[in-house]
């Protein structure tokens, strides 16, 4: 009947549990996916501000980018800083590339205290050249990335070592030009449009970075202080010369600090004004001269809390009394009648026959 709760609710199977997307923290490969997605959002109207925002999102302020590849004249290695990274990615698209992405296969991650390292031995940089003739270039190599171990997970270093590059041309384009019997076009299709997967625009920029990278300090000084190039160079060279000739700051030795603390603690007993008296009784230190004195080791009385260890030793001197008479050591003379110890109980001092005679002294142990 309408309005009544049915006795049994139909079973439609287990309800799906909504899952929240995992954050960037601990997923460096997902950051590469975000980098590819951001590169796909690039347009022809993207200016320097867009590229600088792109580099700020994925690279640290002190990040470096290194490329290693072999050309006809040998091995090449280029390293650029953070300020030149946006221009590097922009130069790839200026060379005729319409699409850029990085594909990682079997990456290995290692976690450190402040960073995460991603090591991928099978990385492929896919670029699509579609302005003149559609060509897909697959540049294979090894990619090593270092991310900061925080929520942003920006890259501190980027090192891509190129091994080989392959250029793929659609079969339909080859068949079309073959039917037209155009030998010039067929020869153009047989030539590579890149060198190790890099366009001429990117290679020229990397060569220019060899000059631009050392000049970053001059450029930043010119933007900050509006100086002329000659004044920027003079100021930079003068500061470098000052750092070279200036003596390095030496750290204060630790032994002197300890000595000052010890002397300060010793002077606190006398108010920190006058030094302690020379004849004041105190425990001798490790440099206390005891060449002509007898040394005895005594234990701590049990009443004071147990025995000393091997490191806690007391050094005492033994003084002999030349006027001591061993024959008359036993004396039966009791204490006087006015002594308060007369008639004491069993817990009082020793009996009269064990007492030393009046006017004579026993051996004295003076604790220094």
In whole angstroms, the N-to-C terminal distance is: 107 Å
User: What is the share of helical residues?
Assistant: 25-40%
> What is the string of SSEs from the N terminus onward?
HHEEHEEEEEHHHHHHEEE
Which residue ranges are poorly predicted, with pLDDT under 50 across at least 5 consecutive positions?
15-24
**How many H/I helical runs?**
9
Shape designation: elongated
Please tell me how large the radius of gyration is. Answer: 45 Å
* Percent strand: 15-25%
Explain what the structure shows.
The strands form 2 sheets. Strands 1, 2, 3, 4, 5, 6 and 7 form a 7-stranded mixed beta sheet that branches. The longest helix is centred in the middle third of the chain and has 17 residues, at 229-245. It contains 9 helices and 10 strands. The model is unreliable at 15-24 (pLDDT under 50). With 368 residues, it is of the alpha+beta class. It is elongated and about 140 Å long. 29% of the residues lie in helices and 24% in strands. Helix 2 (48-58) packs across helix 3 (85-94), helix 3 (85-94) packs antiparallel against helix 6 (200-212) and helix 7 (216-225) crosses helix 8. A hairpin with a 3-residue loop joins strand 4 and strand 5. It has helices at residues 28-40, 48-58, 85-94, 171-179, 183-190, 200-212, 216-225, 229-245, 254-267; strands spanning 59-71, 74-80, 97-105, 108-111, 115-129, 135-148, 155-168, 296-298, 314-319, 364-367.
